[in-house]
Amino acid sequence: MFTGIIECLGTIIQIEKKGSNASFFIESPISNELKVDQSVAHNGVCLTIEQIENNIHKVTAIEETLLKTNLGFLKPGDAVNIERCLSMNGRIDGHIVQGHVDCTATCLQKKTMDGSWEYVFQFSEKFAPLVIEKGSICVNGISLTCFNVTKNTFTVAIIPYTYEHTNIGHIQENDSVNIEFDIIGKYLLRLQNLNK
């Protein structure tokens, strides 16, 4: 379980393809603190640490993950948002995040405000019931608040700290981002559909 509060940025050093899988070698300030078999979110995707050497760790994404997330578009040199799992004696500063990406969304607009930034993202209309005004959403693993919600778009505002300490600043129009909808909303929608 995660909170959507990014701990640091990692850099893709190397990508190895084997069959339908892709292994990522990532250098980060916390790679040498990780443990093999630990779950760590990468752009909001929960992946298992397989190997650690110096300040580089290795994770592998299977075909299903590559198809449903933006990990398949990553290349060496790209920045990745990294968050270790929640310690149960800690505060939840963001919202409850599982690291299970539901879909990708496309950046329609990036707008520079006076001291902040606004992004408009477009997602599949089938997920419309899961996006609510002032609700929580996870974008590339970052816990954010939606506004100006339509049936297939939402806007998020980014403060300077988030812009500088995550990879949101690298996102440009037409780029793909990972989206995880609020788990509580998903369960409520499921219950509602079962009771119809």
Category from helices, strands and their pairing: mainly beta
CATH class of the largest domain: Mainly Beta
Shape: globular
Strand content: 35-45%
Order of strands, main sheet, comes to 4-3-7-1-2-6-5
DSSP strand tally: 13
In the CATH hierarchy, what is the architecture of the largest domain at level 2?
Beta Barrel
Which fold name fills CATH's third level, the topology of the largest domain?
A: Elongation Factor Tu (Ef-tu), domain 3
Domain count: 2
Kindly report how far apart the N and C termini lie: 31 Å
Number of helices: 3
Uncertain residue segments: none
Please describe the biggest sheet, giving its number of strands, its sense, and whether it closes into a barrel: 7 strands, antiparallel
Kindly provide the radius of gyration, computed on alpha-carbon positions and rounded to a whole number of angstroms: 16 Å
Mean pLDDT across the residues is 95
Q: What is the element string, with H for helices and E for strands? A: EEEEEEHEEEEEEHEH
The portion of residues assigned to helices is 10-25%
